[in-house]
Amino acid sequence: MSESALRRALHHALLILLALLVLFPVIWIVLSSFKPQNELFRQPLSLLPRAFTLQNYSQALSQGNFLRYFGNSLFVSVTSTLLAVLINVMAGYALAKYIFPGRDLIFTLMLSTLMIPLQVIMIPIFLQLKNFGLLNTLWGLIIPPAATPTGIFLARQYMVTLPNSMIEAARIDGAGEATLFRRVILPLSLPIVATTTIFSFMWRWNDYLWPLIVITDNKKQTIQQALANFVGQLQINWSQLLAMTTVAIVPVVLVFLVFQQFFMTGISAGAVKG
Predict the structure, then answer these.
(1) Which residues lie closer than 8 Å to 106 by C-beta, 6 or more apart?
(2) Is residue 83 part of a domain?
(3) CATH at 218
(4) 182 in helix, strand or coil?
């Protein structure tokens, strides 16, 4: 075996090892969700379940409103993601391809908000939601994160790489701005759309703190709040918690698998200096 082939094999082996180390906790959660309660902490610990059971799933789904919480999270995540993709891509396109007074200043100010911790702006946002009557509503979870500096930055950096000649050709052919954006810009921006979709859906789906602040009605809780309900004051129902955690992982994995072919292209292009 040549030196280059050996180096390549060692490189691949290291990557596989690192991937297994990252995936091991997830694999443990998924396999443990099929174990009975008395087997979870039995010594010696085993990765594979000795007694395979689906009772954890059936009990968790029958005892609570988990499907309602799942639906709430799905509605919030999908709606918020659609809004985020539309607003971020449109804002990124305007900052990249339109020339207007104060454009660079607006972009700089927008980037500066990345340095502001979320905890600092929680109270002002909470008060604004109260003024608009959006507290204890799912829209109170959807609207505040509809546009993010990170999404606008990635979209803008990607749009800078698009050739101006194609945009000018479309305008010469009589395309209006709406038609230009819908038929030219969006198809060319699929990588950054996929990247924004993955990030936005993942952030909204996994968010626990903001729903905890905004939502007080049990029927409007999200899936992360539902998982916290399995943690009691004196004991934790680990079997059902692991089962519902496995269910909660599935949508994020599916979204990533659907959009992953564009993900790395969008990330690398969004990091290009404009």
Answers:
(1) 95
(2) yes
(3) 1.10.3720.10
(4) helix
Q: What are the structure tokens assigned to 128, written together? A: 């604004």
Would you say residue 93 lies in a domain? yes
Q: pLDDT tens across 73-104, in order? A: 999 999 999 999 999 999 999 999 888 899 88
Does residue 162 come out as left (phi exceeding 0), alpha (psi in the -120 to 50 range) or beta? beta
pTM across the whole model: 0.83
Q: pLDDT tens digits for 204-248?
A: 999 998 999 999 888 899 998 888 877 765 577 788 888 888 989
For residue 127, the enclosing domain spans 64-270
The number of folded domains in the chain is: 1
Indicate whether 79 belongs to any domain: yes
pLDDT tens readout for residues 10-26: 888 999 999 889 889 89
CA distance 167 to 100: 17
- Could you give the dihedral angle defined by the CA atoms of residues 233, 235, 239 and 240, in that order, rounded to the nearest 10 degrees? -30
Query: How far is CA 216 from its chain centroid?
Result: 23
